[in-house]
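Technical annex B. To support the medicinal chemistry partners, we prepared a structural model of the target in complex with zinc ion, based solely on the information shown next.
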Amino acid sequence: MSPCKLLGASTQQYRQNRLINLKFGFFLDGVLPSRQFRGMDFELTNYMENALHTAEISANRGEVPVGAVIVDSKTGRIVATNGNQMLGRHDPTAHAEMLAIRAAANMVGSQRLVDCDLYVTLEPCPMCAAAISLARIRRLYFGAFDPKGGGVEHGPRIYDHSTCNHKPEVYGGLEEKKAARLLKDFFASRR
Ligand SMILES: [Zn+2]
């Protein structure tokens, strides 16, 4: 098994995606998600920290705090980073992932981001999950799971469909607690 391989090729394996082979050993996914990545590459956490920081900036603007970072896996460089801007742009599609994908594609000069990985603080919604597939993102790392609005592990499970041409490798629960806390605090402060 190759290092860091989370999800299998088949849909069934995808659904049972509870066993991860990380560089430093095996961890059970879904039991203690925030612990899955303990001991994993510091870089992964670092990129997610960056996404979390971007989410905080969104919160300060009154936007739902979600942040996304796109990394060129070959160089390790951050290609684009963005937070939710639906309110600011009067655009219901201005989700962090959408904005980051647009910026990255523009930066790379291609509609396909084949060597890129996307880190986002919340499980992507169906729209963003589809956009991630269209962009040919290599790996998707997300923080908090979103049972209500998510489209990867919940709802329409975009990558489970046979019509989905490109399924990124998906890793959920990276810095989950921090990502969930950010959202919880945001909504609590607005009540
Ligand atoms: Zn979205």
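Notes passed to the chemistry partners:
Residues 123 and 145 are 5 Å apart (CA to CA).
Residues 95, 97, 124-125, 127-128 surround zinc ion (CB under 6 Å).
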